[in-house]
């Protein structure tokens, strides 16, 4: 059933998008910490 396939693809893309958003937000948290660490190291 084409409609069911389309729904499954849409759900998969939404899940992937959420995972990417989480990864991006985690990286944004880690970057300032890394900059602080290099600042303290000097």
UniProtKB/TrEMBL annotation:
This is 6203_t:CDS:1. It comes from Ambispora gerdemannii.
């Amino acid at each position: 059933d084409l409609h069911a396939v389309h729904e499954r693809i849409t759900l998969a893309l939404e899940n992937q998008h959420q995972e990417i958003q989480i990864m991006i937000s985690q990286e944004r948290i880690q970057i300032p910490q890394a900059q602080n660490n290099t600042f303290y190291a000097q």
